[in-house]
TrEMBL record:
The lineage of its organism: Bacteria, Pseudomonadati, Pseudomonadota, Betaproteobacteria, Neisseriales. Belongs to the sigma-70 factor family. ECF subfamily. Signal peptide: none annotated. SUPFAM superfamilies: Sigma2 domain of RNA polymerase sigma factors (SSF88946), Sigma3 and sigma4 domains of RNA polymerase sigma factors (SSF88659). Keywords: Sigma factor, Transcription, Transcription regulation. Transmembrane segments: none annotated. This is Sigma-70 family RNA polymerase sigma factor. Residues 128-179 form the RNA polymerase sigma factor 70 region 4 type domain. The keyword Translocase does not apply. InterPro entries: RNA_pol_sigma-70-like (IPR039425), RNA_pol_sigma-70_dom (IPR014284), RNA_pol_sigma70_r2 (IPR007627), RNA_pol_sigma70_r4_t2 (IPR013249), RNA_pol_sigma_r2 (IPR013325), RNA_pol_sigma_r3/r4-like (IPR013324), WH-like_DNA-bd_sf (IPR036388). The keyword Nucleus does not apply. Residues 30-93 form the RNA polymerase sigma-70 region domain. It comes from the Bacteria. PANTHER family: RNA POLYMERASE ECF-TYPE SIGMA FACTO, RNA POLYMERASE SIGMA FACTOR SIGZ.
């Protein structure tokens, strides 16, 4: 599917509109068109096909539930659904950190250049970090994960989360401060 083609976007908008009216045939067609792209997003994040497929089902449940909230004037339909997929993947990574990666995370203080704050190498420290991340507001948690685990810039994160770059920078700064205090670094 060429997601930039106007006809495809119009069809997806139409399908979301009909899905919002609880039309199952429209939802089935929406799944058929969007599932491959959303699965690709999920696989890039979680790197496990079984988990990505499970999350894909969760994404479409959320799409079904929130189809009435979609507004075409606020963005392309695949971008809206892609945000749902990315959020599901990020949440899954924090709910099961051992499944996502065996490598410990590295945190950097955005206010101090590229100096590492700490390299968390002990399993208990990684678990403590996961616990601390769970206590962050969703936007801060997603911002810090996208920045430090996926190497996204503030501008890229702003595009993913649909927020201004300055807001994202503030979220990351507050999240890092919280994490430093929480894990005792």
């Amino acid at each position: 599917m060429d997601r930039h083609h106007p006809d495809v976007n119009e069809e997806l908008i139409d399908l979301l509109t009909h899905t919002a009216l609880d039309e199952r045939k429209a939802f089935a067609r929406l799944y058929q068109l969007a599932a491959p792209q959303l699965l690709g997003i999920l696989l890039r994040h979680v790197r496990q096909r079984a988990l990505a497929e499970e999350l894909l089902q969760d994404c479409f449940i959320e799409i079904w539930d929130h189809a009435p909230d979609y507004r075409p004037e606020r963005g392309m339909p695949l971008a809206w659904m892609g945000r749902i997929a990315r959020n599901k993947a990020i949440d899954a990574l924090w709910q099961s950190p051992n499944e996502a990666s065996s490598a410990p995370p590295v945190l950097f203080d955005p206010g101090a250049g590229d100096e590492p704050l700490a390299v968390l190498s002990e399993r208990s420290e990684t678990s403590a970090l996961s616990d601390c991340l769970r206590h962050l507001p969703a936007a801060q948690r997603q911002s810090v994960v996208l920045a430090y685990f996926y190497g996204q810039s503030h501008r890229e994160i702003a595009g993913i989360l649909g927020s201004p770059s300055g807001t994202v920078k503030g979220w990351i700064t507050r999240a890092v401060a919280h994490l430093r205090e929480c894990v005792g670094v």
